Amino acid sequence: PFFEGCVDTAEYLNHKKYERQNATFVMLTRNEELDGVIHTMRSVERRFNQWFQYPYVFMNNEPFTDEFQERVRSLTTANITFALVDESSWNFPKENTPLFQHYVESQGDRGIMYGNMVSYHKMCRFYSGLFYKHPAVRQYEWYWRIEPDVEFFCDLTYDPFFEMKKAGKKYGFTIFIKEIYWTVPNLFRATRSFIKQNDIKLGSLWKAFIKNRNVLLGDDYLNSFVNELEELNEEMTHEFLIDYLKKNWAREKVIDDELIQEIAHRVRRKVPVVEDKFDQEEYNLCHFWSNFEIARVDVFDNEVYNKYFEYLESWGGFWQERWGDAPVHSLGLALTLNAEDIHYFRDIGYQHTTIVHCPNNKEGKQLPYVESSKYTEIFERESSRMSVKEKALQYFKTGKIDDGWD
Ligand code: GDP
Ligand code: MN
């Protein structure tokens, strides 16, 4: 975090070195979502913008109604722009063709989350490669993305844009989670082929998104492992190896069960060198959860990313699959950014839908640190009678969940 605890905001704003940034909130939304929009704005204003007065840009593929505009205006004294997204940025070029219909319907039949909602595909495509080109957004250097129905739990007493700028940061997140595989089966392949064709020099951020099988299965790794085992003088049965790997090598967090099996096989057969390391990479499905973003507009509005988006368009993945803007942003950022360019807003308490980030969830604070897989376990039990918050609280207190179901 840039600061521990609260800052005296009046003093902060009056400091001679403080510079207000050319920044805005950005929200794409529909007239029908007014209640959720109000909820979000109340939270944003109360926790942050009552002091900082950054403007808002609301975007919609249909004109905002008078009611929507009046209600929204009544919630802030900051400047507001209501912007229309034109049809050419919103619609798919061939959405009335049988092939398009077939792919979208098929995603519905296969139970892919939001797969059969054409509007959801449009939203993902728009946020992936078009929102930052809209003139209403492009005039700014920084943006903070918000959505209807989000909640900020803690006061943000400093200016995140200014602090990011000062620290040389370019993209900030609060939540990092895994994508559902079947929404993006070919996204990583498309991305790698873009990298090869254009000879992209990847930033170090790339490493955050790969299952680094090549490192683990490469020559050095296998050799060191074989040496270590030979000293043990044990019979190298498969079971022994699996057990040994789990006990001694699982400390490398990237080792999952599947990988352990694979390493064990390779060690037993001494399968040699992985030739092309890049070709061995796989997407670990992690991504910055993009309904919250604080970033420079030019992390996307640049030659490499724009070309990347056009390339993805040419693959048809925004409709043949359901590529989300979150994994597209993450992989796209990794084409140009280094890990140091990213800021983790660990101090911003944030909730959207059932997913929450609480700054207290770290070691040394009163609540125990909970692995994100545990959250998934908690939140996936959707059919229960307890609210998600109640379940989470119970889990924090007792270490288990008893929600009245078998
Ligand atoms: P989820 O968070 O992935 O479930 O996606 P949402 O349904 O919240 O959509 C993401 C953002 O895009 C939200 O800000 C929505 O208000 C907005 N959005 C989604 N679909 C549409 C649409 O068809 N038109 C407009 N104008 N906004 C949309
Ligand atoms: Mn949402």
TrEMBL record:
How does the protein's chain sit in the membrane according to the entry? Answer: Single-pass type II membrane protein
Q: An example of a Gene Ontology BP annotation on this entry?
A: cell wall mannoprotein biosynthetic process
What keywords are annotated for this sequence in UniProt?
Glycosyltransferase, Signal, Signal-anchor, Transferase, Transmembrane
A GO CC term? Golgi apparatus
A GO term, aspect molecular function: alpha-1,2-mannosyltransferase activity
Cellular localization per UniProt = Membrane
| Entry keyword annotation includes Magnesium | no
Q: Origin, by domain of life?
A: Eukaryota
Q: Which residues form the active site?
A: E293 (nucleophile)
The reply on keyword Transmembrane is: yes
Q: Which family does it belong to?
A: Belongs to the glycosyltransferase 15 family.
Q: What is this protein called?
A: KLLA0E08669p
Give the source species: Kluyveromyces lactis (strain ATCC 8585 / CBS 2359 / DSM 70799 / NBRC 1267 / NRRL Y-1140 / WM37)
Which residues of the entire protein appear here: the answer is 52 to 457 of 522
